[in-house]
Amino acid sequence: MLRFIVRRLLQLIPTLLGLSLLLFIWLHRLPGGPETALLGERATPETRAAVREAMGLDDPIFVQYGRFLKQLLTGDLGNSLSEKRPVIDLFLERFPGTIELTVVAMLFAIGLGIPLGYLAAKRRASWLDHMSVGGSLVAICIPIFFLGYLIKAVFAVKLGWFPTFGRQDTTIDATHITGFYVLDGIMTQEWDAALDALWHLVLPGLTLASIPLAIIVRITRASVLEVLNEDYVRTAQAKGLTERRIRGRHVLRNAMLPVVTVIGLLTGGLLSGAVLTETVFSFTGIGQFAAQSIDHRDYPVMMGFILIIAVVYVIVNLIVDISYTFIDPRVRVR
Amino acid sequence: MRAPRLKTAIAVAAAAALALAAAGCAESGRDPEAPKKDTLVFGVAGDAKVLDPSFASDGESLRVARQIFETLVQPEEGGAKIVPGLATSFTPDSTGLVWTFKLKTGVKFHDGTDFNAEAVCFNFNRWFNYSGLLQSPDVSSYWQDIFGGFAKSEDPKLPPSLFKSCTVKGADTAEIAITSVTSKFPAALALPSFSMSSPKALKDFEADKIGGTAESITYPKYATDSPVGTGAYKFEAWDRANKVIKLTKFDNYHGEKAKIKNLHFKTLTGSAKQSLEAGDIDGYDLVAPADQKALKDAGYNLLPRPAFNILYLAINQSGNPALAKPEVRQAIAHAINKKAIIDSKYPIGSEVAINFQPPTVPGHNPGVTKYDYDPTKAKALLASAGVTGLKLKFHYPTEVTRPYMPAPKDIHEMMVADLKAVGIEVEAIPLKWNPEYLNAVQTGKNHDLHLLGWTGDYGDAYNFIGTFFDRAKDEWGFTNQALFDQFKAADKEPDINKRVELYKALNAELLKFLPGVPIAHGPNALVLGKNVTGVKPSPLTNERYASAEFK
Fold it and tell me: B398 and B478, same structural domain?
């Protein structure tokens, strides 16, 4: 197992090298340039040229790439051009929010999606099945920005149950240690702060969960349906095993492999930032930050962001691969 | 035994999902107003960049600076006229080159030190002696815009500094000498960038110790975490992760103290309107024109600012030769139905422009020649000029809106229809705002008509009409030395009252000469909660929240 993990982590090196080279070439093909972000709208062509020269943007691309790699090897992702602060600091400020949001969204999606998918399969063609399948189709079709706006209009504006924005009430004087506000509240025993942070996660979490929830319902349903027709399920029923035992030991466990794969992919996707959800809920996460960096032609942020996300993806997929061994004892990682 | 583990995991996830929802229900009993009695949360559209106002040029940084800091002179409340601020009076000598500022006494900085003439001179000398990166246009942009160069300018292109010296003439008197008489001084001292900082704090927090490179500046602690001014609010914290700047009431403020204890500026990317309606914020700026009526009708305190901008239709007299004829320019002015454009494309409170400056700024002249919508007269003028089959290139910008130009394409289309109605053919040229459009119309030679405008920096008419017309520019394509001399005379007039009269005369002259057509002044608005009163909107966005209170 350890060898497998090390090998997979080593595979990151060529992946990141290839990715960074492609990105470098792509970024240089983008119209406009970082000098516009730096100098504003009315800068003269001379000032632009001077800044490009000072930043080394006119050097051959491979010279610039070499400079970037050298910097990267020292763990330095450079400074953001628009925020004028180290990319790594900006990333660390925002990533905890994205992780919290992803965890909550996946809790909603898994916690509701698997039971719903299972029940829909078990009671095939019932009203519950139709509702689950139809509902998941609707959830996939509604654009996130609209769903978020709608959820806010009902649960925040109309009913006043939840806040409309942010990660924590600005009036709460909370101590932040890790940047994970719920965790910080628990660690410092500032229960009000922890509960408030949790409270702020509900609506964006639900909004972000909509698509993963729908996908998990449909995949679980299809997978359970397939397993329910397997001989070993019939055998278990013939043996007189209880419904609960058949569901837990034979059906769900065998149906979970594709579901776990999808959960892994979805989690990786959510961790790379939920631009729309973050925007609608003014939630400080990395998605919005990355989107803004494209507007600002903020090359260091774009590079840093994409490379870090690549690492996150590889790690999430590694965890998924390892989790197969727990679900299916026949699977062995080598 | 693995199956139960899986089941447990799913059960835990389901329980957690329900618990989260339950957490919401438990919290739902909160009264959104209750914890905010002593905190006003104002939603802003972007993060402030820096808290040292001398380094700031973006609206959000300056908004925060206005609450923490004060300037020697300031715009009058709700207007653009310059009135005393930390200085109780400001008078020039007979040459207009030396100004005496009498200062308020008993004023304290937030760190407990005294505000006096020494502090004034310390601040001016600090700005004047900026060196290295502090001379970067990205850092000291307003100093360079207004005062030009520094004691030792490192960029040879910088003009000589307007600032000459600051002399302490007693605790409450500072004498500032400038190198030439100009309309900028002292009006531009109302800009928040020329706010008074505590000399002690500037030294303690090494305010000039700027790091990094011109492309990637690292600001000193004073500019990021420790600004100290004399304002009604003092800085408390900048929670960057949560995107909120927290200020708290300064108990030793020399004027009327803040009525609300805490003032928070929270950056929002989602719908600020929804957050206001939910009671999560107590106000926000730049209310979308489409939301203004609905919010007003719902009882929110909508505060439209008096307009401080202008949209004009520029005419390039070096373009099509016909445009050099006054009758043709007059025909274009009569052809445009300005009121129809404003009625259909502008927000509440917008008005037709008759000068090239807004009425809020002294020097506006209501008695200028007016060009009412009159297509018949426009046709007659074209005929009298002997112009037929006129075809003009009409540039307009894409991917941009400005308060003075909320819908460039629509405005352009309406104007094209008006021009066609009087027999002028138009070739529409859309260009991306920056840099293509700005380059084409400001430094290019190939344009006939275009849309452009300006939002003022400070309350002096020269900041509008002087910016547009005080010298020959490619944008307008004319040379009118008599007019340029008139501008020079106004700029050099040290007596403010006399200068205002010169501006009025200039406005009359401009509308006679008609280098372009003034179109509209488009105000923007901020909104405050139903229970928040006491804030007066300012054309210069100079709102002070110290006067706000919850009903």
Answer: yes
Each residue's pLDDT tens digit, B243-293: 899 999 999 999 999 999 999 999 998 889 999 999 999 999 989 888 888
B5, B28, B37, B269: which to substitute to probe chain A, counting the most A Cβ within 10 Å?
Answer: B269
- The model's confidence at residue A313, banded by pLDDT at 50, 70 and 90, is confident
Task: From chain B, pick out residues whose CB is under 8 angstroms from the CB of A107.
Answer: 13, 16-17, 20
pLDDT of B244: 93
Q: Which of B188, B24, B333, B208 is nearest to A104 (CA)?
A: B24
Which residues of B are less than 8 Å from A84 in CB distance? 212, 216-219
Average pLDDT over residues B125-131: 96
Domain A90-283 CATH class label: mainly alpha
- Residues whose CB is less than 8 angstroms from the CB of residue A70 and which lie 6 or more positions away in sequence, other chains included: none
Report the CATH number that the domain containing residue B474 is assigned in CATH: 3.10.105.10
Same-domain check for residues B129 and B40: no
Residues of A in contact with B240 (CB under 8 A): 93
Q: Is the whole-model pTM more than 0.90?
A: no
pLDDT at B1 over 60: no
* B101 and B53 housed in the same domain: no
Residue B112: domain span:
70-199
- B365 with B514, same domain: the answer is yes
Number of folded domains that form chain B: 3
Does B317 fall in a domain? yes
> Taking CB atoms and an 8 Å limit, are B268 and A165 in contact across chains?
yes
| CA–CA dist B128, B144 (Å, integer) | 10
Rounded Cα distance, A312 and B431, in Å? 41
A21 vs A97: CA distance, rounded Å: 29
pLDDT band, very low/low/confident/very high, at A312 (cuts 50, 70, 90): confident
Whether residue B101 sits in one domain with residue B32: no
With respect to residue B165, please indicate whether it lies within any of the assigned structural domains.
Answer: yes
Which residue in B16, B269, B280 is closest to A288 by CB distance? B269
In-domain check, residue B36:
yes
Whole-angstrom Cα distance, residue B10 to residue A106? 12
Q: Is residue B221 part of a domain?
A: no
Residues B113 and B170 in one domain: yes
How many other β-carbons are positioned within 10 Å of the β-carbon of residue B113? 15
Q: Do residue A94 and residue B212 have CB atoms under 8 angstroms apart?
A: no
Classify B207 as helix, strand or coil. coil
Minimal-distance CA residue of chain B relative to A108: B17
Indicate if B471 and B358 belong to the same structural domain.
yes
Q: How many CA atoms lie within 13 A of A170 on its CB side?
A: 34
The Cα of A38 is separated from the nearest Cα of chain B by a number of Å equal to 7
Give the total residue count for chain B: 551
ipTM above 0.85, yes or no: no
